[in-house]
Amino acid sequence: xxxxxxxxxxxxxxxxxxxxxxxxxxxxxxxxxxxxxxxxxxxxxxxxxxxxxxxxxxxxxxxxxxxxxxxxxxxxxxxxxxxxxxxxxxxxxxxxxxxxxxxxxxxxxxxxxxxxxxxxxxxxxxxxxxxxxxxxxxxxxxxxxxxxxxxxxxxxxxxxxxxxxxxxxxxxxxxxxxxxxxxxxxxxxxxxxxxxxxxxxxxxxxxxxxxxxxxxxxxxxxxxxxxxxxxxxxxxxxxxxxxxxxxxxxxxxxxxxxxxxxxxxxxxxxxxxxxxxxxxxxxxxxxxxxxxxxxxxxxxxxxxxxxxxxxxxxxxxxxxxxxxxxxxxxxxxxxxxxxxxxxxxxxxxxxxxxxxxxxxxxxxxxxxxxxxxxxxxxxxxxxxxxxxxxxxxxxxxxxxxxxxxxxxxxxxxxxxxxxxxxxxxxxxxxxxxxxxxxxxxxxxxxxxxxxxxxxxxxxxxxxxxxxxxxxxxxxxxxxxxxxxxxxxxxxxxxxxxxxxxxxxxxxxxxxxxxxxxxxxxxxxxxxxxxxxxxxxxxxxxxxxxxxxxxxxxxxxxxxxxxxxxxxxxxxxxxxxxxxxxxxxxxxxxxxxxxxxxxxxxxxxxxxxxxxxxxxxxxxxxxxxxxxxxxxxxxxxxxxxxxxxxxxxxxxxxxxxxxxxxxxxxxxxxxxxxxxxxxxxxxxxxxxxxxxxxxxxx
Length: 697
Known about the structure:
- Helices cover about 40% and strands about 15% of the residues.
- The protein has helices at about 1-20, 50-55, 60-65, 70-75, 100-110, 130, 135-150, 175-190, 215-220, 225-230, 235-255, 270-280, 335-350, 370-380, 390-400, 405-425, 450-455, 465-470, 475-500, 510-545, 550-570, 580-590; strands at about 90-95, 115-120, 155-160, 195-200, 260, 285-290, 315-320, 355, 360, 365, 610-615, 620-640, 645, 650-665, 670-680, 685, 690.
């Protein structure tokens, strides 16, 4: 009932914001809102339309004007600039409650520069669990004792509010506050070895701002001017600070432990409320943990706007090395360059360390090729002089016995590096997260179910054009998606072939076999996802008045069923990602609105491939590619997505072998680029994003 109420409330808030354009008011608590849909983990939904995007929620104007600008920070926090947030800390976030596994991870922490661990998810999500389950409490205490013996500090996660009445009075004298303080007292008394508590609102049963309060104390509070907040007497910023203070009184004052606020939320509006509450809260001892992106893990999101904007307090970055939405470490996704890109920004913005997830459920990054991400976290986050090249070379020597310099190490570096780009192009659509809230095949074939929940445009309005092209897909959208997935397939296939060319370089055949399986599974999945993307968006296009595309849809559906059989024969019925059963369910969902057609035909289009960039001078880069039909040639590039700020002059020569030399400020600096061309029929084909300058000098 509480969750239903929360969802209805944010839907109403969204409707008012979109229809009345009442979301950008200067009032602290009057901003736009969005839908919140919490399932089994850190996920959620938000809604937006052109008015939302253009006004005050999702763009740089929001950041500059109404949420986390310097004026807000300077005027509203009351922070003492002399406060020292303290040294950087580096931790791992443990999620699996397999006790043997926990011990194995703890034993490795010290050697990898880790000084603390977080116990979360299957271990603990609410502080009340310690008080309600003696078996669980005993396990947590044994983990804490073991960690202490290894010199590690221990944090536990806790959501507020959980297991509270449908509505209650926020009066500081109401009994609910003492009940919550008692929950922390009892837990810290039961397990005195706990060193700190990670407090959070996101994914709680009921975030504090959505709880109706109709007592006299709430009714007497000054209205916000937002009618839907006022109808439940909610002042979100004040409520957040009340929770901070209540928990601080126990954790900080009575038990002399540490307290850290995890800032993950589902909606841009909630990020504003939370950020403003932290900037105003006067107690510096309250630390902060902020994800490197503004919502759930998505590589195309901008940097989290709360990084460096939480007042003068200790802030660490939360990172995901377990690949929760990127294959769960079941396929290779080497994040080395991505980690370097993200944390270089975080460090420059004032981050004092990081904590990283190293698993998701029973799927672990430790013990296989994806462990390179944990090693990269140690090297790149803890040592600002380390480079991605250092990580690759050191890891290959340690893990595989492949030394640098050498041709085998060079080949392996390209395999690992390209695995990340193959993942991006497979799981995301034109820079948007649109299909599934997991690493597996989406359940719905007739609509991109996450498009209105997690699209990049909700955090940067420069993503508006690609977002709208997915909302109302045209034939150019279908061409762009097919090309993007063709790039994923090419990278995955090249990775597998390149690995097979260096098999004899591996010191241990088992390591080669494990990596080969991951790359082979990834290659199989890229074909699945090309068809899945095509079905979802071609179905929409067909329903928008293009019945001539039905034969292409039918071919996709039949091919998917064939691939499901092949996946099951090769990998088994339980394989993930690319689960055969889910593929069949996906086709079944399509059939609910798309009957079997009498004929089928495979979609074909001009395609670009073999895209590469090479620095040939300090400020010059040669970009080359091929196309399967003659096309013109052009390159676009920029420091960041989604806008390509610079472009070469289009070469009108129709050719299948393309070469363009571009001039940049620094050929060794990370740069995002794409290539494009037009054939003699006027068909425009453009690649998705690639990077060059990944080895800083």
